[in-house]
Specification:
Elements lengths: L7 H12 L3 H14 L4 E7 L5 E6 L9 H4 L26 H7 L2 E7 L6 E7 L2 E8 L4 E7 L6 H5 L4 H18 L4 E6 L2 E5 L6 H9 L1 H6 L1 E7 L2 E7 L12 E5 L2 E3 L2 H10 L12 E6 L5 E2 L10 E2 L2 H18 L65 E6 L3 E6 L2 E6 H16 L6 E11 L2 H16 L3 E6 L2 E8 L7 H13 L9 H13 L9 H12 L14 E5 H7 L4
Parallel strand pairs: 1-7, 11-13
Antiparallel strand pairs: 1-2, 2-6, 3-4, 3-6, 4-5, 7-8, 9-10, 10-13, 11-12, 14-15, 16-17, 17-18, 18-22, 19-21, 20-21
This protein binds adenosine-5'-diphosphate and magnesium ion (MG).
The site of adenosine-5'-diphosphate (ADP) has 22 residues, from helix 2 and helix 4.
Length: about 575
């Protein structure tokens, strides 16, 4: 074949391959653009795990009508003018190719109104060709819609993973950026359902709770160090909170999420001998340094960086993390009753109360580590306090979902499902020492699973046995169930098993602790009374009593709150009596 210059379209698609690998990369680029535009609030709407639609709306400075066409052209950027600028980059974008790349492999619409303009404009690009541009009414800011990603590159479509995985990647990106930018309000919707949100009030601990749940967030340790010109901030898990992979290790360099094996290695070194092999910590670390000390122009996806003073950066990370581990001072999350938990958390069925974001107050918490003196702090002997609840009087039920109870210090709204989950969980964890009671089925039941599910179950058979399941392989992807835990006796055994496997597959929320506790938590989730069930006064009282007896009554085993406490104080404040 003779040498020929590639047609523009082909060249664009090749370039796009490096920037846009999957729906999550689209989310990342659009999020970065919104952040660069100084947005205070960003809404991300996703349909069909990002294959159908990714839409990011922001209230940033916008794009003026006469620049829309430039914005979607290759190598057009407002963030860089000369080659020297490359060494003082303060923005997340600078290559001027994200929008053009996305536009070459999808249907793109950009609608925007610049802050200094009275009217907005919109441009449409279809597989790299501009199809329409016109003035439109638009609020200040920018909305970028990306539809039918890869519709013109079927080969790319084939490389996408399951919806679940693609959705998880998107969630990862959004949650990570939310942690790095707590002052920006972020909302994420999947198929019209709000699945994650932050308030944008600047409190990173609140975002930690939204991302990891209260139980884990409460345990994380603060990292803070200044070693001119480097500064490092963030959170790491104590040695007892671990993961089986590196997925929850996140680094930001100058506000940019980066992938750097060497930074991860520095972190791991800090944990040296403190973790079992094959276990990894959870960390969110924000590294800041003068832009001249880091080269971000390594790869089109901008996820790799090169440091000018590599050794110095790594040893700073390693030392600061080690120090935080030794000091072992957990992030003070405060009393749950004081904390605003954003609604619409993932996989929550039933109605949820929206709690007014008003009474958030962390004043008086000492949040920072003592100033860096370059030496290890003695480990603190204190255990995190047990969050007991006082004696409560059940008053009634609301919406067949919540119990209302009165305590000496105000009103408690209790989520009956979450509360029951907690009660069952603690009972089961206590009972497991003596082996859990299982109930034999009159007749073994055959359950057919998908090959992937079968592989999952195969792995977890010993754990299931310990919990009272008697399950045996019976054929390819067929299992015979002979006994189930007593707790699940009145659920159809095939369903019990199937539901459990589906939960295994869906392992999206990070849960702490060993597999057994995890499985127990899942069983309890299934066995607990659902919302929508009316409880008699007797049953309400029994549930409240059981909850009082729990070790950690305020959260369900998945870290969601079981109750909202409206203290006498908060009530008085809300009614304007104070
Ligand atoms: P880069 O971010 O590297 O400059 P992009 O292709 O992502 O390249 O964006 C091109 C240009 O379009 C940006 O430089 C910016 O001027 C403009 N732009 C893109 N998204 C937004 C947005 N959400 N708000 C304001 N301007 C934007
Ligand atoms: Mg960009």
């Amino acid at each position: 074949m003779p040498i020929q210059v590639l047609p523009d379209e082909v060249a664009s698609q090749i370039a796009a391959g490096e920037v846009v690998e999957r729906p999550a990369s689209v989310v990342k680029e659009l999020l970065e653009n919104a952040l660069d535009a100084g947005a205070r609030s960003i809404l991300i709407r996703v349909e069909g795990a990002g294959r159908g639609l990714v839409e990011v709306s922001d209230d940033g400075m916008g794009i003026s009508a006469d620049e829309l066409e430039l914005a979607v052209s290759r190598h057009a950027t407002s963030k860089l003018a000369s080659a020297e600028d490359l060494f003082r980059i303060g923005s997340l974008g600078f290559r001027g190719e994200a929008l053009a790349s996305i536009a070459s492999v999808a249907r793109l619409t950009v609608r925007s109104r610049a802050s200094n303009s009275q009217s907005g404009a919109q441009i449409k690009v279809d597989a790299g060709r501009i199809t329409a541009a016109a003035p439109v009414g638009a609020p200040q800011g920018t909305t970028v819609r990306v539809m039918d990603l890869f519709y013109n590159v079927p080969a790319r479509l084939k490389f996408l993973k399951s919806d679940r995985t693609e959705r998880r990647r998107i969630n990862e990106i959004v949650m990570r950026y939310s942690l790095a930018y707590p002052q920006v309000r972020v909302q994420l919707e999947h198929d019209g359902r709000s699945t994650f949100s932050t308030s944008g009030n600047g409190d990173r601990r609140e975002v930690l709770v939204a991302v990891y749940g209260v139980e884990i967030a409460r345990k994380l340790l603060v990292v803070e160090s200044r070693e001119d010109p480097l500064s490092l901030d963030g959170f790491i898990s104590p040695t007892e909170v671990t993961r089986s992979n590196r997925n929850e290790i996140t680094f930001f360099v100058n506000g940019r999420w980066v992938h750097d094996p060497a930074l991860t290695a520095a972190l791991m070194q800090a944990y040296h001998t403190m973790l079992m092999t094959g276990r990894f910590p959870l960390a969110v670390l924000m590294l800041d340094m003068p832009p001249g000390l880091v080269d971000v122009n390594v790869h089109p996806a901008k996820a790799e960086v090169r440091f000018r003073q590599k050794d110095r950066v790594f040893s700073a990370v390693q030392r600061s993390v080690r120090r935080a581990l030794l000091a072992h001072s957990p992030v003070p999350i405060g009393d749950l009753s004081e904390l605003w938990i954003p609604d619409g958390r993932p996989d929550e069925a039933g109605p949820r109360l929206a709690v007014p974001p008003e009474p958030v107050s962390f004043e008086g918490w000492s949040y920072r580590l003592p100033p860096d003196q370059g030496q290890a702090q003695p480990p603190s002997p204190e255990e995190p306090p047990v969050q007991r609840v006082p004696l409560l009087r059940a008053v009634g039920q609301v919406g067949a979902a919540y119990l209302v109870a009165e305590g000496p210090d105000g009103l408690y709204l209790i989520d009956q499902h979450a509360a029951h989950e907690r009660v069952l969980f603690e009972k089961m964890m206590a009972a497991r020492q003596h082996g859990l009671v299982s109930q034999r089925l009159l007749q073994p039941e055959a359950v057919e699973l998908t090959p992937a599910q079968a592989a999952l179950i195969e792995e977890e058979l010993p754990v299931l046995a310990q919990l009272g399941f008697e399950v045996e392989p019976f054929g390819p992807a067929i299992f015979s169930v002979r006994a189930v835990p007593e707790l699940l006796a009145d659920i159809d055994p095939a369903r019990a098993l199937r539901v459990l496997v589906e939960d295994f597959e869906e392992d999206e929320r990070p849960l702490q602790g060993e597999l057994e506790a995890r499985v127990i938590a899942r069983i309890c989730k299934r066995a607990a009374v659902r919302s929508g069930i009316t409880l008699s006064m007797e049953e309400q009282r029994a549930l409240v009593r059981d909850l009082e007896a729990c070790q950690a009554p305020r959260t369900c085993p998945h870290g969601r709150p079981t109750m909202i406490h409206l203290s006498v104080d908060v009530l008085a404040r809300q009614f304007g009596r104070k």
